[in-house]
Amino acid sequence: MDIDWDVPEITSAAWAWMEEIEKSAVRDNAISNKAVTFKDAALRQYLNLMRPSITKIGCAEVLCKEKGVNKYRAFCLTDQAPLKDNEVVYEAGKGGCDKGETCPKGLTCKKGLCAKP
């Protein structure tokens, strides 16, 4: 993203990715009673970061100046491969492990989310 302010933070990049869901809703044909599937490249960044299967994330950022304009880039990697078309983003459930869902093996329920102990 190109910016016109002096000191961006990694959180500003995260907010930009989160804005994807505000600008482009998940398509109706991607939502069923059982799951939400990936069908829209406009939501790629957001949905790749919101998957419940992610247990690790690492991010890097850089700020450069080019022709008097600040250029900010942020990049995050997770422990999951990027989503492919029609791949399940998340499955429908009861609303988290504090609502009756069970956590995968090796994870425990913390504040309604499955997490490593």
Automatic annotation (TrEMBL):
Gene3D superfamilies: CAP. InterPro entries: CAP_sf. This is SCP domain-containing protein.
